[in-house]
Design goal:
Elements (H helix, E strand, L loop, with lengths): L8 E3 L2 E2 L7 H4 L9 H13 L14 H16 L10 H9 L8 E7 L6 H9 L2 H10 E7 L3 H14 L2 H8 L8 E8 L2 E9 L4 H88 L12 E7 L5 E7 L4 H10 L7 E6 L2 E3 L17 E8 L1 H10 L1
Parallel strand pairs: 3-4, 7-11
Antiparallel strand pairs: 1-2, 3-5, 5-6, 7-8, 9-10, 9-11
Helix pairs in contact: 6-9, 7-8, 9-10
Length: 392
């Protein structure tokens, strides 16, 4: 039996076709001598052709409806066959090649011609055999079209040229009627599609299976390379995403740090401003107190004097002489003029231990026994300490 001719791909979307060669050079004619059984089959097929329902409307305006009819009539006529996809050829390529590398399949494109003398034999004995059907189901996306009518053939050739390439379309256009059916085997990746085998009807079952298996094995080799490339690409993309995420987080951390620094600087500035205001107010209060204090008596003053030594919280001491008749308020104002105001400090008489701020401010130093001399201790107000702690 003559061996089928398999066009050699010239690029990713078509086949080389020698336009000067005769159509018989591209596809071998069907065998001229047939045994008795084949003769009976071909005669039966020819005589039944007029009684069979059409696989597809003569003018397939709606591809989906036409392919649904093809699938139904094909199953009814041959009692089995591949699970043809009732979608357009473009959608079939997307189904086969549009997913990631691990899920891609080969695309088997069955082209039928009802007037071919080999159609019945090819469909009933080869295409519908369990081995072929199961193999196609497992490893291929199957799609079919009927080119019996001129309209449908031209429509297929237009789709074929657009999707599979002009080389494949020209090859199919030159196929003689009795060289049909054809089985085109295509592989692809995304939108790229390449036909790498055209199987003619004059193949036997073993030849058909061998070509399908060979196409599958070659496809698996390509798939493994594509998987490696895809995994490497995904790994690079993941690394890039991780780097971008790390960069984004770094920017956010830097932004948060800058915002925190700005907030801290603003807080410090506000505290400094508040401190300046308090210091200014304190200076004003101290100046007001100083202006309210009578001048210190001279050493030759004849009136009773009180010499008072003050011990400050930091351990330093300072002295001041007062008239013994001065009011206690004058002494307190003097201490306040040094920055130790009643709001922040208290003035203690060591024996008996007495907080002078609790006494009558209009009473005299002499009546409070701060005479003729005394040492007073200035301490921070405990209430002020607790307020400070609560504020902090």
């Amino acid at each position: 039996m003559p061996q089928p001719t398999t066009p050699t791909p010239s690029h990713s979307n078509g086949l080389d076709v020698d336009s000067s060669s005769d159509e018989d050079d591209m596809f071998m004619d069907a065998p001229s001598a047939l045994d008795d059984e084949d003769d009976l089959i071909f005669v039966s097929s020819t005589s039944m052709g007029s009684r069979l329902n059409q696989l597809m409307p003569e003018k397939a305006m709606d591809a989906h409806v036409a392919l649904e009819q093809f699938k139904s009539e094909f199953m009814s006529r041959y009692h089995g066959g591949p699970d043809f996809l009732p979608l357009s050829l473009k959608d079939a390529t997307v189904k086969a090649f549009g997913s990631d590398a691990r899920k891609r399949k080969l695309l088997a494109i069955y082209i039928h011609h009802d007037q071919s003398i080999q159609a019945n034999v090819f469909c009933s004995q080869l295409l519908c055999s369990d081995a072929v059907t199961n193999f196609l189901e497992q490893h291929f996306v199957s799609w079919a079209w009927d080119v019996t009518s001129a309209y449908n053939k031209e429509r297929f050739l237009q789709d074929c040229k657009q999707i599979l390439g002009s080389g494949v379309a020209d090859t199919v256009r030159k196929v003689k009627k009795d060289n049909y059916p054809l089985l085109l085997i295509a592989h692809g990746r995304g939108r790229q599609c390449e036909v790498n085998a055209i199987i003619q009807a004059n193949s036997d079952l073993n030849e058909l299976m061998a070509k399908l298996v060979n196409a599958y094995e070659e496809s698996e080799e390509r798939k493994q390379q594509e998987i490696r490339e895809e995994d490497a690409r995904i790994a690079r993309e993941n690394i890039k995403l991780e780097q971008e995420e790390a960069y984004r987080m770094s920017l956010e951390a830097d932004r948060a740090k800058v915002e925190a620094e700005l907030l801290e600087a603003r807080r410090i500035e506000e505290l400094e401003e508040q401190r300046r205001i308090e210091e200014t107010k304190k200076e004003e209060d101290m100046e007001r107190l100083r202006s309210s204090i009578p001048d210190e008596p001279s050493p030759d003053c004849k009136e009773p004097l009180s010499k008072v030594r003050f011990r400050a919280p930091d351990g330093t001491t300072f002295m001041r002489t007062f008239l013994a008749s001065e009011k206690l308020q004058t002494l307190v104002n003097f201490v306040g003029s040094k920055g130790y105001t009643p709001q922040t400090h208290r003035v203690l008489k060591p024996w008996p231990k007495t907080n002078l701020l609790t006494l009558d401010m209009s009473s005299s130093l002499q009546s409070n026994k701060i005479f003729p001399q005394e040492t007073l201790i200035i301490e921070e107000n405990p209430d002020q300490d607790s307020d400070t702690c609560s504020e902090s």
